[in-house]
């Protein structure tokens, strides 16, 4: 059980720092918390699709700007599976960015 101060820190301070860092990014990878190039993005994130054997839904919890949802749907399609991406984020600002990027 979290104390009131711990809860406040997580809900206010940690979220503010998270938003500051991600929203300061100058490209979609940085805005999703990944500081490397596109090649490494695919190298480190594409394995998420490996267990997918059929189409369906994909839920990205902590989706930030939605780049992982977008990438997973694309990679699954390359493998012949259609995934419908959904995302959740604790930050309303990041969720808005994801909705803007992926209407």
What are the main properties of this structure?
two-stranded parallel sheet; 103 residues; mainly alpha
Overview of this protein structure:
The longest helix is centred in the first third of the chain and has 20 residues, at 4-23. The mean pLDDT is 94. The chain is mainly α and 103 residues long. The chain has helices at 4-23, 38-45, 67-78, 92-101; strands spanning 56-61, 83-88. Strands 1-2 form a two-stranded parallel ribbon. It has four helices and two strands, in the order H-H-E-H-E-H. Helix content is 49%, strand content 12%.
The residue ranges in which pLDDT falls below 50 over 5 or more consecutive positions are: none
Please list the strands of the largest sheet in the order they lie side by side: 1-2
What would the average pLDDT be, to the nearest integer? 94
Over all CA atoms, what is the radius of gyration? 15 Å
Report the span from N to C terminus: 38 Å
Give the SSE map.
Blueprint: H1 4-23, H2 38-45, E1 56-61, H3 67-78, E2 83-88, H4 92-101
Parallel strand pairs: 1-2
């Amino acid at each position: 059980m979290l104390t009131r101060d711990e809860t406040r820190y997580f809900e206010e301070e940690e979220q503010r720092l998270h938003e500051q860092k991600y929203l300061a990014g100058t490209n979609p990878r940085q805005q999703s918390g990944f500081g490397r190039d596109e090649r490494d993005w695919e190298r480190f994130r594409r394995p998420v699709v490996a267990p997918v054997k059929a189409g369906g839904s994909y839920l990205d919890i902590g989706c930030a700007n939605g780049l992982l949802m977008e990438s997973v749907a694309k990679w699954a399609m390359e493998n012949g599976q259609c995934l419908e991406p959904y995302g959740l984020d604790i930050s309303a600002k990041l969720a808005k960015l994801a909705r803007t990027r992926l209407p």
